[in-house]
Amino acid sequence: MPLQYRSLLQTLNDHSIEYIVVGGVGAVLRGAPVNTLDLDIVYSVEPDNLVRLVSALENLDAIYRGQPERRLAPKASHLAAAGQNLLITRFGPLDVLGSIGNGRTYRDLVAHSPVIDLGEGLLVPVLDLETLIAVKEEVGSEKDRAVLPVLRRTLEESRRR
Amino acid sequence: MVPTEEVSERGYSEDGVDVTLVRWMLSLTPAERLEVLQQFADFVLSIRATSISQPPADPKRSLD
After folding, report:
1. What percentage of residues in chain A have a pLDDT greater than 70?
2. A123 contacts in B (CB within 8 Å)?
3. Looking at the domain assignment, is residue B36 inside a domain?
4. Residue A10 neighbours by CB distance under 10 Å
5. How many domains does chain B fold into?
6. CA gyration radius, chain B
7. Which of A10, A124, A153, A160 to mutate: most B Cβ within 10 Å?
8. Where does the pLDDT of residue B1 fall: very low under 50, low under 70, confident under 90, or very high at 90 and above?
9. Would you place residue B3 in the very low, low, confident or very high pLDDT band (cuts 50, 70, 90)?
């Protein structure tokens, strides 16, 4: 199975998707030394964006990874429900999330997601560390709590710079 | 502002975080950070592929 973060992000940008990078990749881009093997995004549920997102996911050969043998591709109706769509694509695992934490949506998060320049014309909105920490605290799962000390220390060190 | 905590001589904070690693990551550009993550993923997936392609060792086999 390949995993190509840049290709995933570039495909989303090529389709003009309104999205925010969250989760482990977001933490890494903000400077936290954590590891992950998927890309988590929160997307806008505006109808035009859902149409573009379905097109992008088709381009990525995305299917739900929970039951790969069924090869169930996400449709606009699935995405409109704003739930968690855990997908596998030709560039690796992609979690397409309607909301995170206590129901925080794209509209809630976009003001806290400055764009990061990844070079070669790849501009990506990434959730800031303060909000990422708040979301992880809200979720409160063991996995999310485990990474909080690293995120808090990264935030503290980044503020000193 | 998060209060400053003691960092041990070995570079770990009170909550066990390797602060030297945090500072190193912050010294990189975002593109370089993504490359670090990509290299980690490539490494893990290559190990996983290798372990899948090789049959497990036979525990009954005697050691010479």
Report:
1. 99
2. none
3. yes
4. 17
5. 1
6. 20
7. A153
8. very low
9. very low
Boundaries of domain holding B47:
29-53
Residues of B in contact with A33 (CB under 8 A): 18, 21-22, 24-25
Nearest to A6 among B17, B34, B36 (CB): B34
Complex prediction ipTM: 0.94
3-state SS string over A53-113? HHHHHHHCCCEECCCHHHCCCCCHHHHHCCCEEEEEECCEEEEEECEECCCEEHHHHHHHC
Distance from the Cα of A125 to chain B's closest Cα (Å) equals: 12
Which tens digits make up the pLDDT trace of A65-115?
Answer: 998 999 999 999 999 998 999 999 999 999 999 999 999 999 999 999 999
Q: Which CATH number fits domain A5-156: 3.30.460.40, 3.40.630.10, 3.30.70.3040, 3.20.20.30?
A: 3.30.460.40
The predicted pLDDT at position A39 comes to 98
Record: contact B38-A5, CB cut-off 8 A: yes
User: Does residue B45 have a pLDDT over 60?
Assistant: yes
Residues in Cβ contact with A151 at an 8 Å cutoff, skipping those fewer than 6 apart: A27, A32, A34, A129, A132, A133, A136
Residue B22 placed within a domain:
no
**Is residue B38, in this structure, part of any structural domain at all?**
yes
Domain ranges of chain A: 5-156
Q: Is the minimum CB–CB distance between B47 and chain A shorter than 8 Å?
A: no
